[in-house]
TrEMBL record:
One of its GO terms (biological process) is DNA repair. Mg(2+) binds at N7, E34, D147, N149, D247, H248. The record marks D218 as: Important for catalytic activity. This is Exodeoxyribonuclease III. Probably binds two magnesium or manganese ions per subunit. It comes from Sphingomonas turrisvirgatae. The record marks N149 as: Transition state stabilizer. Its cofactor is Mg(2+); Mn(2+). Residues 4-248 form the Endonuclease/exonuclease/phosphatase domain. The record marks H248 as: Interaction with DNA substrate.
Length: 267
């Protein structure tokens, strides 16, 4: 089974790109972020014609998350995080599909830092960590997938010295990501590509994609029950080179039906 996350940066404006990617790569489940569309303007018919059912949590002009599936029925379990005082920001949706519980998320950007937007980011992250703890405790196969707006390490950002004051690379945010992983989550992409320079976002400006001046901010985190089934994790970076595309590229994992035996690195 292939499960992907993709910040589409406007589901209607980038719909031809999304549909082309779905047709060419056929992921089984997809978490989308930055729909930038209210619920009534989500392109459900076009998604259905592409072979996918969908649930979505939209918002006019900003944010918005969705989950698409061609691998089975979508059983929605939650929209919004527990204890979120701002229900106007559509940033989290959760569903059970084919035996896997998937939380699709779009974590706040947080800039400028310091300021109220950065405070909101940290508070939202704390609520995510609290909810993630309950998911880990369930011992179910669970995945958290989406745009985390975090570069966890210097390896995940082009010229990290230029990002020291940015909310995506702030020590508080990177510390929160570490606290999340410490619950037992596996960062799928970094686990299978421990030493590679690998990015998921390239700015539209300064010819960033052609220079490979990117960031790794889109992540797929697996609970222990699911991490045992991890076979592959990749970035479809070629999609970033398409015309009128998002500034993000899709990221995906491939899961086996049974636990995968990994060969140990030579001593």
């Amino acid at each position: 089974m292939r499960i992907a996350t993709y910040n589409v940066n406007g589901v209607n404006g980038r719909l031809p790109v999304l549909l082309r990617w779905l047709a060419e790569t056929a992921p089984d489940i997809v978490c989308l972020q930055e729909l930038k569309a209210p619920d009534e303007e989500f392109p459900a018919a076009a998604i259905r014609d592409a072979g996918y059912t969908a649930i979505w949590h939209g918002q006019k002009s900003w944010n918005g998350v969705a989950i698409l599936s061609r691998a089975g029925d979508i059983h929605e379990t939650r929209r919004g995080l527990p204890g979120d005082p701002d229900s106007g920001q559509s940033r989290y949706i959760e569903a059970a599909i084919n035996g896997i519980l998937i939380g699709g998320l779009y974590l706040p950007n947080g800039n400028p830092r310091p300021g109220p937007k950065f405070d909101y980011k940290l508070a939202w992250f704390d609520r995510l960590i609290d909810h993630a703890a309950t998911l880990i405790a369930s011992d179910l196969p669970v995945m958290l997938a989406g745009d985390f707006n975090i570069m966890p390490t210097e390896r995940d950002v082009y010229k990290p010295e230029r990002w020291l004051d940015d909310a995506l690379f702030a020590p508080e945010v990177r510390g929160a990501y570490s606290r999340l992983l410490d619950q037992g989550w596996t960062d799928a992409l970094r686990t299978l590509h421990p030493d590679e320079t690998i990015y998921t976002f390239w700015d539209y400006f300064r010819n960033a994609f052609a220079r490979d001046a990117g960031l790794r901010i889109d992540h797929l985190l697996l609970s222990p029950a699911l991490a045992k089934r991890l076979k592959r994790a990749e970035v479809d970076s070629f999609v970033r080179g398409w015309e009128k595309t998002s500034d993000h590229a899709p990221v995906w994992v491939e899961l086996a039906d049974k636990p995968v035996r990994r060969s140990r690195a030579p001593a």
